[in-house]
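Supplementary Methods, section 5.1.

A reviewer requested that the exact input to the structure prediction be made available. We therefore reproduce it here, unchanged from the version used in the analyses.
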Amino acid sequence: MKIEIWSDIMCPFCYIGKRRLESALEGFEYADQVQIEWKSFLLNPDMVTDPSKSTLEYLSETKGWSKAQTLQVTQQVVDMAAEEGLVYHMDRTVVANAKNAHRLLQLAKTLGKGGELKERLLKAYFTEGANIDDHTILIGLAKEVGLPENRVMKCLDSNEFANKVDQDIYESRQVGVKGVPFFVVDRKYGISGAQAKEAFEQTIRKAWEDYVKTNPVLSVIENEEGSACDLEGNCD
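The structure derived from this sequence is encoded cell-by-cell as follows.
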C-alpha cells in the first residue's frame, strides 16, 4: 500500500502532519508493507531568499500583522508542534526559496533516502533556523543522511530534478490538492491537513481493507513437520 504526501519544507503543519501519520503507523500491524513517497509542493515558488529576515518579519510584512499579532498566531503553531514532540523556533526560521531543497529531495528519493532527508530538512528549518537555500548547508544535511557529496554537489550546481518538482506540483492539481500537507492513500483516499492521529488510523485501515481485496496477503503456516529447502540450499 502506498501513501503519497504533498508537502513543503517551509510549512509548519507539514512537519506536524508527518508526526501524526508516523504515530498512526506505529499502531498499524502492517506498517512494514506501507510505502511512503514524499511529493514536492511550493507554497511560495517566487519567494526571494533573504537570510537577514526571519519568517516572523516576513509574515508581519506580507499579512499586515503587528508584531504582537504575528507572535500570537505563530505561538499557536509552536504549541501544536510541541504536542507532537517537535521544537519550533519560529523567530529563527529564515526566509528562503525552497526549490533547491526540493530538487535535492528528489535526488534523495532516487537513492532511497527520501524520508530521511525530508525529516532532516524540516528539523533544520523549524528547529535549527537553517537557510535551506544555502548550498553549503544543503550539502551538509544531505551528507548526514548518507547521500554522496559529489552527487549532491552535481545536483545543486545544475537545474537537475527541477522538472520532477514541477511535475509533482502539476500532479497535485490533478488529485485536488489545495493546500499542504495532503496525504493520498493508494489513490483512493485523501487526507487534507495535519488532522488528528485518529483520522490517519481510520483512513489507513480502510485503505488496507481495500488493498487486501485486490492484493491478498499470503498466510504462511510453518511447523517442525514441514520439510523444506532454504535459499542457502540447506534441506531438512
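The mean pLDDT is 92. These observations are discussed further in the main text.
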